[in-house]
Amino acid sequence: MVKPGLRRDLVWRLEAAGFALFIGLMRLIGLEAASAFGGGLLRALGPRTGTHRTVIGNLQLAFPEMDPEARETLARDAWEQTGRTFAETAVMDRLTPASGRIEIEGLERLYAIRDSGRPVVFVSGHLANFEVMPACILAAGVPCQITYRAANNPYVDAQIRAARARYGVRLFAPKGADGAREMLAGMARGESVALMNDQKFSEGPEVEFFGHPVNAAPGPTRLALKHGTVLQPMSVQRLPGVRFRLTVHEPIPVGGSGDRAEDIRRGVQAVTRFVEDRVREAPADWFWVHRRWPDRVYACLTEISPD
User: pLDDT for 13-33, tens place per residue?
Assistant: First the structure.
């Protein structure tokens, strides 16, 4: 890592101090108040940001038939859910299966994975408070590498790792060939791996998401093929009262066509379709603030929008 200049380092430290203050405040006021504060804050501020245009554009692409007023309401609901999730991460050690706030459907599948000693590739998307998923995987006793994208600010990143460690999560940010080798070595030891597969990816197979082409990461499918295992989808929905329903779905088998490239494409499409189905079930729960589709799809917005 290149050592930052003094100015950049100072900015990073100031950002980290502000982040630490926020974490401390959320922990002081408690889970329900923190969730309400975060939700109310982003519900008010989110629509005033430039990112709101991205949210509305995404909703136009996903739900072109939706009335503009209903789309705006959904966008505000989504901002609230994003704010709640962000604030809840400060107190995730109080939001585990032991808290009584999480209903788990398909828990027996997690126990079967644990007891088999064979790894799987957990896949999901940024649904509701997605931190609930690793908390439940580890609480069930499944050894698993929880992957994430490291924060640009290393001091903030250290705080994120410390916050997750409070409920047993050791985060792993795979980068390049070394990261891939580490994941493979972990799976060879019987450790599963958990990956998000719903963000923009500039390479990889082109598949369909809400009727539009996207490129999606082939990594999860490749890992499953290499280790002769399955893709294990999970999802989480937000319920009233800072409660959640986590579902461990039917596993997605991979391979079988005799064509590795086609097997990867089918696996990527299956995961992408799984995420789409979950978003359709609870659209406010998804993380709409990122540009999921290629630029050429956004360029067609004026043609497909009912506005």
Answer: 999 999 999 999 999 999 999
The Cα–Cα gap between 263 and 257 comes to 6
| Of residues 281, 272, 274, the one with CA closest to residue 198 | 272
Give strand pairing partners of 243: 239
At 193, the amino acid letter reads V
Q: Which token pair is 33?
A: 């108040």
Per residue in 103-116, pLDDT (tens digit) is: 999 999 999 999 99
| Burial call 23-59: b when 16+ CB within 10 Å, e when fewer | beebbebebeebbbbbbebbbeebeeeeebebbbbbb
Distance CA 87, CA 204 (A): 33
* C-alpha torsion angle, residues 214, 215, 217, 222 (rounded to 10): 110
- CA-CA distance, 15 to 10, in Å (whole number)? 9
